[in-house]
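RNA polymerase sigma-70 factor (ECF subfamily): structure, please.
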Amino acid sequence: MTVDEREWLADRFEEQRPRLRAVAYRMLGSVAEAEDAVQDAWLRLSRADAGRIDNLGGWLTTVVARESLHRLRSRARRREDLVDTLARLPDPVISAAGVDPEEEVVLAESVGLALLVVLDSLTPAERLAFVLHDMFDLPFDEIAPLVGRSSVAARQLASRARRRVRGVDLPAPDQDPVRQRQVVDAFYAAANAGDFEALVELLHPEVVFRADYGPNRPPAQYRGAATVAKQAGRARGADLYPVLVNGLPGVVTARNDRPVSIMAFTIADGLILEIDGIRDPHRVRRLAADVVHP
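Here you go.
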């Protein structure tokens, strides 16, 4: 391959990168693993005879899907040794509030953290069939070889996954971003003031707060306005950086110029219905590195 041919191929690959990252992220729920899967696709492409690839986008999607499936199966085997009863939160996609870089929009669009948690409960084959067919419109004839099944069996995998997704009552957040941000700001103002009653008034009576503390502590889930309001005191005195977390209003909290948590809020009818919080120091620093600067 000449230098010009390699540059041409690299340009064509970059055109496909946003879609490939979106596929891998929905498959894996991890920004870092998604990037690795996409990079593996580039390595495969750079070694292949590109002139014999009729549909580059389809070929690359298949490579990324196959690599993602391999990673999911390896992850499932590792989970056999875990005892946590609650799922850990997937990696969120963070962007500055009011700024939507095109690639991050493609990556996070239409896939909230709540949906990613549900996808994590599927088998690797179910997840692949659902993601590729329902989210990216791939026909079952193309999905079947990836999971080693017939097209009829692949259709059944997607159908089972679809029932699981539909069986979960995923919240429908408010559509007014300004109003959503006002509710989040009021939440932190009340937390900083230690105003318990104001916090409770901002929370839905059946609010759920999911907290992921990292590998050294099991994840936790807190339910009810009073219980969640008591947890809000941990944010008192922290520096707040407004962000979007998979399109939802969120905040990165920091202390001494070091990010310590990532919080995402689902707001419905003006009340906070769900809070997803990542407090794993290593993961927070990696994911929020572009948000908090000394």
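Notes: The chain is about 55% helix and 15% strand.
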